[in-house]
Amino acid sequence: MTIRLTPLTVSTLLARLRAEPPLVQCLTNAVVTNFTANVLLALGAAPAMTDIPGRQGRSPGWPPVC
């Protein structure tokens, strides 16, 4: 399935994302932590960063670690 991304579609999706900012739990290495967090912040998400498996903790409603 191919999705056509028009400027209107992208702006609508970004508006929906910013209206209800998701908490994104990231398990990443130290090299890309800042970059990943900044991209998520620019999109309107709330990043929760960790680089050690098992230390990210759990909070009610957090998505599973991928």
Summarize the structure in words.
The protein is of the alpha+beta class and 66 residues long. It has one domain. The protein is 36% helix and 15% strand. It has a two-stranded parallel sheet with strand order 1-2. Helix 2 links the parallel strand 1 and strand 2. The longest helix has 13 residues. The two termini are 23 Å apart.
Features:
66 residues; alpha+beta; two-stranded parallel sheet; 15% strand
The average pLDDT score comes to 80
3D shape: elongated
The N- and C-terminal alpha carbons lie at a distance of: 23 Å
- Structure class: alpha+beta
The figure for the number of domains is 1
Could you describe the largest sheet, including whether it forms a barrel?
A: 2 strands, parallel
Strand order in the sheet with the most strands: 1-2
SSE topology string = HEHE
Instruction: Give the fraction of residues assigned to helices.
Output: 25-40%
Low-confidence stretches: none
Q: Give me the count of strands.
A: 2
Instruction: Report the total helices.
Output: 2
Helix/strand layout:
Layout: H1 7-19, E1 23-27, H2 33-43, E2 46-50
Put the structure in a nutshell:
With 66 residues, the chain is of the alpha+beta class. It has 2 helices and 2 strands, in the order αβαβ.
